[in-house]
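Dig into these lines:

——
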Amino acid sequence: MRAVGIVLVTVLLSVLGLCCGASHHDVKDTKSFLPGFNSVITQNGLNYGVEVALEVLRTKLQHLTIPNQSGDTDTISWKISNLTMNSLSIPSANVVIDPNVGLTIQVFGASGELSSNWWFQEDLYSSINGSGHADVTISNMYLSIVLSFGLSSFGYPTVQSRSVTVTIGSLKLSFSGSNLDFILDILKNVFSGLIKQQLVTGLEKAITSAIDNDLNAELATLSTRVDVSPQAYIDLQLVSPIIFPTNEYFTLLQHGEFYSVVDPRESPFSPSANLPTSPINSDMLQIYIDQFVPNSASYVFLKLGKLVLTINSTEVPDNSPIQFNTSSWKTLIPNLYTKYPNWLMQVQVYPLAPPTINFTTQGGFISGRGAVSVRVINPSNPNDIRETFLVGLNMSGDVKAAVVGNNITASITNVQQTLSLLSSNIGPVNIAVLTSLANYLVESAIIPQINVYLAKGIPIPTLDGVDIVNGDVSFGNGFLFIGANVKYTPTQK
C-alpha cells in the first residue's frame, strides 16, 4: 500500500497534463514574469483523473510488497514479513479542491487480501517458537491525503503532504504452519488489533514519505521546456505556485515564452496583466494563451531566419498565368525582359520586423512589414543570382486557429497588402502593375506556403498518453482560448 499515494497523485497529474516528459530545465527567474499561458483544470477534469487513476491503481498495486510488521507484547515477540498484496478492490475515490490549500484525495471502502510469513518466540522460554504462513484480509479501508503545492527554483511544482490518514475497518488473520494452536489463537485474537495499528502507522508513514520524497523526485523530472523545432522551444515554467481559488477548479500560471536554443534572449513583447485564470465552461482542460506567446515566437523565428520565403521557378504551377521567367513578365515590366531576356527568376520574401499578432473578440489578426526581392538567375551560371528590384510590403490578414489532435494549428486568410518601390536596378517599375502582380503571388504562392507550415501546428503540452478530445478554439481580448476534454491511455514502458 506504500505506493497508493504516489501512484494516485502521479496519475492524476499525468491525466491533467501537468507532466510533460523528460527533465529539461532552463533556470530563469520566472517568478518575476507575468503568465502568458494559463491552464485551468476543472472539477470535471479531476473526476476523470480519479476514474483513470483507479484503473491504474488496480493494475499497479497487484502483488505489491508491504513493509514488514513486528512487535513485542507481554512475553511474546512476533513478526509478519513478506506481506504481499494478492488482490485489491477500490470501489470509490474522489479528489476535492480545497480553496487556498490544494487537493484532498479520498479512497473509500478499499479491501484487499494479502499473504505473508509469520514468526513468534516466547521471550522467557525461547524454545517456544514457531513460524509459518499467514493470510491477511483487510476490509473497509479509508485513505485521506491532503496535499499542498509549492514552486521550485526551476519552475516546476512541488508537493507536500499536509496530512495522511489511514483507517482499517477490519483485519482478519488466518495462520498455518504450527501445532501450537494456543499461541496462534493469542496472535490472532489478542494481537490482531495491534497488528492493524502497526499497519495503519506504517502505511501513513510510507505514504507520507512517498509523497514528500518520491513524488517530489518525480516532479523534479518534469520538463518545463517543450521543443517546437530543433532551433526553438517554449518555456512553460510556472511563474507562481498552483492556485486553488475555489472548490471548482485550479489554475497553473506558466511563462509561455518562445526562445532560441542557441541564443535564448527575451523578446521585446510582454504578456497582458489581465490574462484570465478561471473557467468559462465545464470542459476538463481550459487554456488561455496570451498574444504575447505567438509574438515571442515571431521574434524568435525572425532571428533564426525562419521567416524568409524563397520561391523558385520550379515551385510555380504549370497552369499559372505568370511563370518565373522574364519572358512571362515581358508585358508587365518590359525593362526587366530587355535587360535579362528569357532568364529564370526567383522571388524572396522576408520580414523587416517581427510580424505581430493581435487577438480580439472578433478573431485573430496579423500584420507585418517586409520586403520582396525580385531576382534573376544567370542561365550561364545558376549561382549568379541578381536582384532586379526591391519592393516594400505592408501586409495584414485574419488568423484562424484550430485544435488538430494535440496540436494548435493556424492559417492566414483575407490578406491585404500595400507596396512601395524601395530600389531598382532596371529603371522605373510601375507600382500599380506590381500591386496586381503581388496580389496574385500572395494569394497563389506565398500564403499557401505559409499555411502549409502553420498547418503542422505547435504541440499542446501534455504527457505521453494524454490526448486532447473535442478541442474548441475561440478568441478574447488579447488571448486565444482552448477548451477541451482529455483522454488518457497508459503507455507501455
Remarks:
- The radius of gyration is 33 Å.
